[in-house]
Amino acid sequence: MAPAIELRGITKRFPGVIANEAVDLTVAEGEIHAICGENGAGKSTLMKILYGMQAADEGSMTVFGKEVHFASPNDAIDAGIGMVHQHFMLADQLTVLENVILGAEPMRSGGRIDFAAAKQHLVKVSEAYGLDVAPDELIEALEVGERQRVEIIKVLYRGARILILDEPTAVLVPQEVDELFRNLRELKEGGATILFIDHKLDEVLEIADTITVLRQGRSIATVKPADVTASDLAELMVGSELPTPETTESTVTDVVALAITGVTVTDEEDRTLVNDVSLRVHRGEVVGIAGVEGNGQSELVDAIVGTRAVASGTIFLLGDDVTRAPVRHRRELGLGYVPQDRQEEGMLLPAPLWENAMLGHQTRAPFAKGPWVDRAGARARTEEIRRSFDVRTPNVDVAAHALSGGNQQKLIVGREMTAGPTVFVAAHPTRGIDVGAQAAVWDAIRDARRLGLATLLISADLDELIGLSDTIVVMIRGKIVATLDPHDVTPRSLGSYMTGAAFESGATP
Amino acid sequence: MKNRKLLFALFALVAMLVLAACGGDDEAATTEAPAASTEAPPASTEAPPATTEAPAAPTTDVTVGLVFDIGGRGDQSFNDSAYAGLERAGTELGVKFTEASPNDDGSNRAELLQLAADSNPMVIAVGFLFEGDAAKTAAANAGSNFGVVDSAMLDFTKDPPAPYGDNVSGLVFAEHQGSFLVGAAAALKSTTGSIGFIGGVKGVGGLIEKFEAGYIAGAKAVNPDIKVVSEYITEAPDFDGFNAPDRAKDIALAMYEGGADIVYHAAGGSGAGLFEAAKTHSEASGTKVWGIGVDSDQYNTVDPAVKDYVLTSMLKRVDVAVFEIIKAKVDGTIAAGPTTYDLSVDGVGYATSGGFVDDIAPQLEEFKAKIISGEIEVPTDPAAA
Amino acid sequence: MNVALGRRIMWATAAPLAALLFAVAMSSIVLVISGSDPLAAYGDMIAHARKLETMIDILNRATPLYIAGVAVAIAFRMNLFNIGVEGQYLLAALVAAHVGGLISLPAALHVAVILLVAMSVGAAYSGLAGVLKVTRGINEVISTIMLNAIAISGLGAWLVREWQASGSIEPGSATRVGTTPIDESGLIGDLNGVLEVFTRDIKQGKSLTGVLVLALLVGVGYHVLVNRTRFGFDLRASGINPFAARAGGVPPKRMIVTAMVLSGAVAGLVGVAEVMNVGFFPSNPIRGLGFIGIAVALLGRNNPLGIGVAALIFAFLDVSSGVLQFTGAASREIVVIMQGVIILAAVVAYEVTRRAREREEARSAAAALAGSPA
User: Which residue does chain A place closest to C361, by CA atoms?
Assistant: First the structure.
C-alpha cells in the first residue's frame, strides 16, 4: 500500500534563511503522525508546502502514491488534504451548518442553497467519524473545543482524507485536549490520516503512532513513541552538537540587580500564565530559564520588560520598584532586551539600520541630544556595532529588511550590548544565527558578565543554557519547578526536568 | 499587513471621494436653500415675454459668459432656466455665449467670473452666492458688465445702499405680483372659503413675507371674506425651513384638516411635503384639495404621483431676467444696481400646466393687466395685505 | 554618496512620475472618447497656468490643501487614519473666526490668538478620537467619521446659527451670513507686495494669501518634528512596528493621543485660509478640504515636499477646470477624473517601486555579504 504522504528532499529557502532543507517524511495511511520541533525548526513551512500555501524550491511530493504539485490550497483539498488552523476561521453569527458549507454550498436550481442536502451530508460525515455536533447551533454559543470540532468537520465535509492539525492543543484546556484526542482516535478508526504538529512532548507521546522530529529545517529522526522518552525527544529537538559555551570562573556578586517577587501574570480570560514566580539575578550572574516553549517564559519576560501588566507581585530593577513603570523608564535604568521574535518585536524593517540601532535607546546619548535625534552620533554608534558584531551590510543606511535574519539578530544583540546595560534580558539571543556570530554573542555576554552585567537568559538551546548560566531555573506551566546548578546537569537531565519526567521518576530537583 | 492597510486606505479614500461628491450636491442644496426657494425656477418655455421685439438683424459683438451655480445645467430649476434665457438671447439677439460651472465645493467661483470677464463684455452669475466674488471681480474688470441673478448687488454697508459698481447689476423678481395671481387663483378655486400659505423661513429680510403679502392680497381681491392661514416652518437664521419636506407636510395636513382646500408654499425643497399632504388628505377624506407650487412649474418637476395636486405654480422667470439683461447690454441700456423683473416683462407669472386653471384664466389675465397698468398695487408686507 | 543620493531621489520620484504619466494617458483616452482633443485641452491648461494671476489662484488653492495633507500625514505616519480633518478644520475655523471677531487686539497678537484658538479646537477635537481609541478601543476611522458628522451637521450648524452676526441678513444679501467680521488687525495680509518685487504688477484684483507662509512653516515644522526629533522617531517607529516601538520604550497610548492631537492642531489651520480671505466664517464655507487632504497626503507619500507637490498638482487641476470650460476644450469632469486616476495610479506605482527597491537593497546587502569572508 502506498503511503498517504511521501515527501522527498523538500527544500525551501527564504532570503537569508533556509526554512526546510532536504526534508524526508513518510506518513502511512490511517496513522496519527506527529511532527515536532522547536519554533523555527521549519514545521509550519513544511505544512504550508504540504497544504499548497507555499511552493517548495526543491523536492518531490506524492499523495496516495500520486506525484502532486500544489499551486494553492484548493489543489491540496482536491487531493484530499485538509488543514485545521490554530486560529479558527469561523463566522460567529452563522450556524455550524452554514459555517461548514461556506464556500462549498450545494446548489439547487436557481442559485438557492440546498440546506437539506447539506445537512444530510454533514450528519453523515459526523457520524462516520464519530464527531458529535449540532448543525443548527450558532458558533458563538460553542466552547473552544466544539469550535475546533466544527473546523475538523469542515475539512472532512470537503472530502479530506488527510488532516493537518496545526498545534491544535494550544488553545485547549486539559479536558478539551482529552476530548480532542478521543476524536482523533475515532477519526483514525474511520480511516483518516492525521498529521499532528506539536511541541508538547507528553501529548505527542500519548497520541502519535509515529513521530518525526525537525531541527533547523531538517528531518532529524522518525521514531515510534514506544521507543523513546520525553527527554530523548527533547534532545532530538534541541540537538547537542553545537560548540559548548563554557563559562569559566564565577563572577557572581551579592548585589541584586533584578529582583522578582511573587509575580503572577494572567491573560484576558484570566488564565494564569506566570504563577507566583520569584527570582533574583545578581550583578555578574547569568540566570538561565529552561522550559518547553509555551510554559510562561515569554510572558515572564514581557512582565520584566514592561509590555505586559502583572496581576500581582513586584519587580525591582537595581533597587527601584518598576512593577508599574513604563517600558521607557526601565530601559533608561539600564535594561537591555533581546526579544524572542526579532522581526516582530525588535526591528523596524523598512527603516535604516542606524534607526534600528536607536530603538530602545533613543532617549540617550549617542542617539539623542535633548529632544533632538543625533543623527551623526547614531550613525557612528551603528558603525561601531557593525564592526564589533560583524553585521554584514553595505552601509548603515540600508533598510533592515535587506539584511539576513542572522545579521538582524547580530544588530539587535549589538545595540543592546553596546548600550551598556546593567540588566540584560535575552530571549533566544543566538537563535537562527550562524556559528561564528553565535560565538560572538556568547563572548559579548561573558565579557559583560565579568563587568557586572546581570543576565536573564531564555533559551531552547540547552547547551547554551548550561554553558552560560550560573544558575538554571526550570519553568513548567508558569511556575518555577526547579532551580539547578548547571554543573550538575546535562542536556538530557535538563530535558527531563523540562518535561516533568524528572519528578515522576523520583529524581530530586 | 502593510498591503492590507494600504488597500483599506485606498478603499476608504475612494468611498470618501464618492461621498464627498454626493455630499457636495447636498451641500449645494442646503446652503443655497434660501436661493432655491425664492428664486429657482425653470420657467416654462412657453409664453415668450410680451415686450420682446423681433430683432431685425440678430448680429451683435456682445458676447456672454455665464457661470452657473454648483450643479450646473440639468438641475431642472434655476440653472436650466438661466440657460434657456441664454439660448434665447443667442437665437433672438445673435449673441455668442460660453458657460461654466464651479467645482463641487464652489471654491473657484471668483476664478470663473474672472475667466468669463477675460473674453466677454457681459458676465452673468446664477445665484446670490456669487455676490461677494462678483462685486470684487467687477471692480477689477471695468470693461465688463456683471449681472447676478437673485441678488440686488447693493452694498448695504453704505448709507443709502448703493450698487457695488457702475458695471454691476442685480436681477431680482417681483415675487409678490406673481403671488397675487396664484392667490387670486386659489380664492377662485376654493370651495371652502379657506386657503393656506406655508413660508420656508421667516425674517430673511422680508423675502418670503413678500410672497405671503401678494398671495393674501390676490385672494382678498377675489373674495374679501376669505380666510387665509399662514405659517412659517422656521425663522432666520435657521434655514432648515427651505429643506424640511416632512415638517411642511405636517403643517399642510393640519391646514387641510382645518378646512383649507388650497395651500401655497414658498419654501423651496420643503414644497414636496405639501403636495404629498394634498394627496394624502384627498385620498383619506374623498375631497380633493390642492397645493400651489413656487419658482418653477412644479407640475413638471414634482414626483409624478402627486402632480395632479399641483393647481398651478408661481413662476419666477430666470430665463426672462437673463434674456432681458443681455438685451439691455446689447441695446446699451444696462443699468447698475437692481432691476426688478415683474409681470410687465413676464419676469413672474403663473403656470397653466395640467389645465387646472384654464377655466379661470380670463379672470387671472384681467388681474394681471390691472397690476401691469398700476390699477392694482400689490403690497409686499403681509400686514398691509 | 552622490550616487546614493541620486538613487534615493530616483526611487522617491519614480512612482509619482509614473502615476502622473499614467493619469495623463488615461485622461487622454477619456478625452478622445468624449470627442475632445487632448492636446488642445492640455495646451489650454498649461497656457492658463503660466499666467501670474492663475499661479496665484493655484497657490491660494494649494495652501489649505497642503495644510490638510500635512494634518493627515502626521496621523498616517503612526498608522492612524484621521478622516476627521474635515470636521476638525470646519469647527476650528468657525470657533477661531468667532473669537477673532469678538476681540480687538494689536495686529500680531490678534492673529496669534486666532491661530491658537484654531489649533486648540482642532487638537482637542481630534484628540477626542485618540482618547476614545486608547480608552475604549474605538477605531479612529469610525470615531472621526462620527465626529465629522457631529462637527458639521450638529455642533457646527448650531454654532453658526448662534454666532450669526446680527443684522447682516439683508434682502438679496444672504452671502453676508456668517460670524462677526474680524477687524483688520486679526487678518493675515496678502503677499502681493512681496511677490511684485520679483514679478510684474498683479492684475485682476487677485491677491496671494499670506496663509501660504503659515503653510510653509507647517511644512518645515512637520519635517523637523518627524525627521529630526526623538518624538518624531517614536512616532515613525510606532507607525512602522508598534510592537517593536513598545518594546523600545515608546508608550503606545500616549503616542496615539499625541499624534491625533498634533494632526488635529494642524487640521485646525486648514480653514484659517478661508477665514483670512473673507474676514469671517461664512455660512457656506468651502468644504471637503479634509477629504482631499487624504488624497494629497497619499500622493505626497507623507513627505513634506511630496505633499507640497501633490497639493500643487491638485490645485492646478482644480484651477484648470474653469479654463477648460470656457475654451470649450473639455468638460470640467475631466479634472475630477484626472485627480482620481492619479491617486489610484500612485498607490499602485508606490507599491511596485517599493518592492523593486526592497529587492535591490536585498541584492546589494547580499553582495556586501558575499564580498567578505563568511
Answer: A402
